[in-house]
Amino acid sequence: MTQTAVLLCGHGSRDPEAIAEFELLAAALRPRLPGVDFATGYLEFARPTIRDGLAALAARGARRILAAPGMLFAASHVKNDLPWEVNSFAADNPGIEVRFGRDLAIDPNLLRAAADRIAEALPQNGVDRSETLLAVVGRGTNDPDANSNIAKVARMLWEGMGFGWAETAFSGVAHPRVDIALAHAARLGFRRIVVFPYFLFTGVLVKRIYAQSDAAARLFPEIEFVKAPYLRDHPAVLDAFRERVEELGAGQPAMNCQLCKYRAQIVGYEGAAGAPQAGHHHHVRGVGDGHDHHHYRSTVMPGLDPGIHAPAMGGGGEDKSVDGRDEPGHDAFG
Asked: For a Cys staple, 286 with which of 18, 79, 209, 293, CB 3.0–4.6 Å?
């Protein structure tokens, strides 16, 4: 077996359909990465866990593991929880090189996939795009840098696809929430509103977004509400994942940290700068599959400054209410 391996790191979900879609994407990605071993792992609610996935690859002979986050933006999961898992494993297995990659971020491939998903949902019924409002819905986190990326995605799709207007909304944590945003959008005078969940996979939150779109359609029957499909395993999404793995194998990619609240004192989040890395998923690691989960000791890699948050060797840590953990049954594939 090759000594280089790839671990695709997912968040996990209580929704089995979300796990199935993640595994389908992984299966489609696997042949695009010839010559390496391949596995998946999850932060919570599913198995194998991240640590179990890393251990399985090592047991099959891997001596260099490229851990790629299966997540759209760099919020606390990518800046904190996943690096903690990877660093803890690396500290316990010094003979194995583990590299941690960056998020998918705002990428031309993903914009192309988003545009295709939106376009395929538009009915050909005479309503022009100039008469259509696009509502882009993000996951929502307590990281303003990640949240702002949704606004940028919405703006680029708005201008690139020729819609009359665009609004952003979030499924949790950040504002405006979906119901408030759609009620506001309905009063702007557009004949059609396209609701587009900017998520990779289905899950509790995507289904809730679609239900909120249906509710808005009942409140405003004079407006056509269209539910666009999420990204899923679009070929351009697979291209983006392949590129992240390839850049990780060629060197250590760096996230754009200019506005990271863990590196700089961002307005309203000054206390997060320089926070030590800490994992927050111990209580739900592997939960949901009928197996007990395990606790691992917190580890900082030798020579690592706890206040430095880089994809390879560090992450950010702060309060426990990150990435929507106030939302019951949440998943954070997006």
From this structure: 293
